[in-house]
Design brief:
The structure is a single chain. It is built from twelve helices and 15 strands. With 376 residues, the chain is an alpha/beta fold. The chain has a seven-stranded mixed beta sheet with strand order 1-9-8-5-4-2-3, with helices on both faces. Helix 3 packs parallel to helix 4 and helix 8 runs parallel beside helix 11. The structure holds pyridoxal-5'-phosphate. Pyridoxal-5'-phosphate (PLP) binds next to helix 3 and helix 4.
């Protein structure tokens, strides 16, 4: 692809000397598991996210799983979440023995609609797991008010939204825990898998710290069943270098989104998703809605691919309709907004290094797509 969806090599080239020095520092130290480099990164992320603790883990998926476990979620519990997310969100719920209960999305943002939460609360509901999809924060004031009223745990999936704010505060700092992913294509991308749980709750932080390392509270003493899910020291060292650039990258992502908006705001056959009022969107992905159904959306994607422009569909199948969740008993039609979104969303190239002329090229190619014209 001439214009990729995201460009990790450009990012590496711009930081090559510093990243190589960090790798060298770790490989020559011979210390590869946890240690001061991981601790320093945990503190830096916690400070940056305005919370008191960060606990590095092996992936964003494990961050969700361990945060839920640490908050006491288990067998028989119901967790309210969105059907329109990556499967890792619900995988974590299932792995705890709990059941995801899907709450439909708001079509203008594709985020879970907080107005629909309360009708799904039962005697078994224990937690809400909101996802700030694409980097766009969900209304956390409303969500926390409902959670408090019903005494529910809140674990925020911030895998796509590191740095996004709601009412001036970073996401991940509102609930009992926030879960970050450093998967390469996320806001802050590792050179492999990595994740973190952030929290203001010391008990949750201590619990995740024990769980990620075999349930260890003191070396070779195990108070609970744990797993091996530590953040690699090498990844931490490299991520520390990148974190220093994150504010600048977010500024540029927002600028890229604004430029796309200038070209595409009035384009026929598409609609731009709405950043939530009261928050700041960090645009991990720049996603639009294509009118006319999956056929038109797929024709647009093919049209762009032919011109060397990468696109992606996040996500083509709502989780309640996934074969793996047949046992949960959902039917087509149960979550109409999520089902409509799976046929309309399309994400365009979005990364800090994309040039203004590339944004123009993508926008012009999109507007020239015959499938959009004929749909009108
Ligand atoms: C990427 C992602 C995850 C999982 O993160 P990994 O680091 O890949 O395990 C969870 N939730 C959402 C919404 C994601 O986008």
């Amino acid at each position: 692809m001439r214009i990729p969806l995201t460009d990790l090599t450009a990012q590496y080239q711009s930081l090559r000397d510093e990243i190589d020095a960090a790798i060298d520092r770790i490989t020559t130290s011979g210390s590869f598991i946890l240690g001061p480099e991981v601790e320093a990164f945990e503190c830096e992320i916690a400070d940056w996210c305005q919370v008191s603790h960060g606990v590095g883990v092996a992936s964003g998926t494990d961050a969700l799983y361990l945060a839920l476990l640490a908050c006491g979620i288990g067998e028989g519990d119901e967790v309210l979440t969105t059907p329109f997310t990556f499967i890792a969100t619900t995988e974590a719920i299932r792995r705890c023995g709990a059941t995801p209960v899907f709450v439909d999305i708001a079509p203008d943002t594709c985020n879970m609609d907080p107005g629909l939460l309360e009708r799904h609360i039962t005697r078994s509901t224990r937690a809400i797991l909101p996802v700030h999809l694409y980097g766009n924060p969900i209304d956390m004031t409303r969500l926390m008010e409902i959670a408090r009223r019903h005494e529910l745990v809140v674990v925020e999936d911030c895998a796509q939204s590191l740095g996004a704010t709601w009412q001036g505060r970073k996401v991940g700092s509102f609930g009992d825990a926030g879960c970050l992913s450093f998967f390469p294509s996320k806001m802050l991308g590792a050179s492999g898998d990595a994740g973190m749980v952030i929290t203001n709750n010391e008990c949750v932080a201590d619990m995740v710290r024990a769980l990620r390392s075999h349930g260890t509270t003191r070396k070779y003493y195990h108070e609970m069943p744990g797993i091996n899910s530590r953040l690699d020291t090498l990844q931490a060292a490299m991520l520390r270098v990148k974190l220093r650039r994150l504010d600048e990258w977010i500024r540029r992502r927002r600028e890229v989104a604004a430029t796309y908006g200038d070209y595409l705001r009035n384009a026929s056959g598409i609609s731009l998703l709405r950043p939530t009022d009261g928050g700041t969107h960090v645009y991990n992905y720049f996603t639009l809605g294509v009118q006319g159904g999956a056929g038109v959306r797929n024709a647009l994607a093919a049209h762009l691919t032919e011109r060397g422009i990468a696109t992606a569909v996040y996500y083509p199948c709502s989780l309640h309709l996934q074969p793996v969740y047949r046992g949960l008993g959902y039917q087509p039609g149960d979550l109409p907004e999520s089902e409509a979104a799976q046929d309309s969303v399309l994400s365009l190239p979005m990364y800090p290094e994309i040039t203004d002329s590339q944004i123009e090229e993508v926008s012009q190619a999109l507007m020239a797509c015959p499938a959009l014209q004929f749909h009108r």
